[in-house]
Amino acid sequence: MNFLYQKEPFFACQALQYHRDLPFEQETISVLKKFLNCLPLDIQNSITQIQNKVVFWIPDRHCDSPLLKSMFLVAINRHAATIRYSSTYSESTRTIIPIGLYAMNGLWYCPAYCTTANQIRVFRVDRIKEIIEEKPYPKGKYPIPASIQEYLEKTEVKNDYHMKIQLTDIGVKRCESECLLASGLKTFSTGGGIIDMEINRAALEWVADYILPFGNNATVLEPVELIKIMQQKIHELHQHYCKSNGTNNQIAN
Question: What is the mean pLDDT of residues 137-163?
């Protein structure tokens, strides 16, 4: 067995242990740990030394996903699920057909075909509040990728908008830690940088929320749709604080 390949299962296990919730039984991780004990002693010692210096850290989002395992089984069984979902602004009931699950930055996501929107949407598993019903769906009726890998590969190449965001040095440093934006980040030798990438429609709202706190350290150049979302959010924030100031003045008087 290749020296590096002998270590991979253990570090896969190490990365998983920092997730608050897992979609499969803890026994799976236990098996990987037992695998370590079966390795030659010199390999075990090498892994221990690496473990003391390298860690695949996953941030704790303090978001419980009690239905993660249930959604995992829905996806494995290739079933449809009627769920109660709490988005940023509202709560709704919809029927989805999960493609699979993936973890990113400490959160679990479930891309699924939504029969309400008639397209694939990405759902945060911690925001799924209830699985009302689960049942099989007619095979071949909906345009669903055969695997989560196929979906992610298509997502990388098929998007709705070309996005450009100009960044200062501070903006660059803040974007380097966000894997989605970092994938399109280009830095300049003279300082600053630019995010130049394709992005899908569903991600525009998230991008706006993420870069809004950047202030003058980020300037959206395109698409126009993202600029309009930014303008709307800034207007709402301005109105919120104008209203707050009015209330505070009344109290002071």
Answer: 80
Tell me how far apart the alpha carbons of residues 110 and 231 are, in angstroms, rounded to a whole number: 30
Which pLDDT value is given to residue 179? Answer: 72
Instruction: Look at 53 and 167; give whichever has higher pLDDT.
Output: 167
Tokens at 16, concatenated: 């998983």
SS3 state of residue 73: helix
CB of 120 closer than 8 Å to CB of 112:
yes
Q: Is 48 exposed, middle or buried (0-12, 13-18, 19+ CB in 10 A)?
A: exposed
H-only helix segments in 169-223: 169-176, 179-182, 204-211
Structure tokens at 221: 């150049």
Q: Each residue of 163-218: pLDDT tens digit?
A: 999 999 999 998 887 777 888 899 999 999 999 998 888 788 889 999 999 999 99
Taking the chain, what is the end-to-end CA distance rounded to the nearest angstrom? 78
- What percentage of residues in the chain have a pLDDT greater than 70? 73
C-alpha distances in Å from residue 79, one per residue of 119, 138, 149: 17, 9, 18
Rounded Cα–Cα distance for residues 225 and 227 (Å): 5
Please work out, in degrees rounded to the nearest 5, the angle formed at the alpha carbon of residue 45 by the alpha carbons of 39 and 49.
Answer: 130
Closest CA to 98 of 87, 115, 111: 111
Residue 223: cis peptide before it, omega within 30 degrees of 0: yes
26 within 8 A of 42, measured Cβ to Cβ? no
State the pLDDT at residue 222: 95
- The number of CA neighbours under 13 Å toward the Cβ of 166 is 6
Helix, strand, coil percentages in the chain from 3-state DSSP, rounded to 5: 45, 25, 30
In the three-class reduction of DSSP (H, G, I as helix; E, B as strand; rest coil), residue 168 is classed as coil
